[in-house]
Amino acid sequence: MIRCFTICILFYIRESPLSDRQNYLFPSVILHVIIVNIKDIKRRSFMDKFSQRAEIQRRIKTLSPAYCRTADLSIFRRILALPEYTEASCIFCYVSTEKEINTRPLIVDAWNHGKRVAVPKCISNGIMEVFEIHSWEDLETGSYQILEPKASCTPIAPSEIDFAIIPCVSCDRQKNRLGHGGGYYDRYLRSAAFPCAAVCREKLMLRRVCHEPHDYPIDMVISESAIY
User: In sequence order, what E strands does 125-176 have?
Assistant: First the structure.
């Protein structure tokens, strides 16, 4: 709405006779205020997310290995009980890093139950694609030192996926997700029709995640304590 109003003011001033433009000082001032406020909103939004990520990094340093193992196991068990998971023929799941919630037991369970497993691969800045893996041998170290599918792996279309488990820096109980800021998942999931769950340890949950229009809404958040 602000953008449309701004365009209208600019068009109105441009089409007016030169002698009359001095009468448009007030609309010009309004236009300037609008532009300044838009820039300020974007700046504060970025800083909010930056601050929230910094807060979560501080919290991560306080987590004990015992808590992480117990929380991850509880999250794993909650996923196994979900109809979205049990009924899925093909799941999309990230391959966890050391500090993330451990997804290896989930991937192994999916293989053991004959499910297809699709994992992400960074293709370019902000863009990722998904490929099927059949064993750990199908992975190699890729972007950001994350294990990714090898070039020999078969690509998986979003239409083939039935359920997705995705990582986060944090989430809130309103199902807003805070990512790392690259936009990989937000862009990819916009073409998805499958249900999507973010996993988050309860001690890393935020009361309210800074949320913007381009952030992709998730269907559920799974912690060791509850499914939101």
Answer: 127-133, 139-141, 147-149, 154-155, 163-166, 170-171
Quote the CA–CA distance of 173 and 165 in Å, as a whole number. 17
Which tens digits make up the pLDDT trace of 5-34? 444 444 444 555 554 545 544 444 444 434
* Confidence (pTM): 0.76
Total Cβ atoms within 10 A of residue 164: 27
184-191 contacts: CB < 8 A, separation 24 or more? 184/120, 184/122, 184/126, 184/127, 184/128, 185/128, 185/216, 186/214, 186/215, 186/216, 187/126, 187/127, 187/128, 188/120, 188/127, 188/128, 188/129, 188/130, 188/158, 189/164, 189/216, 190/216, 191/158
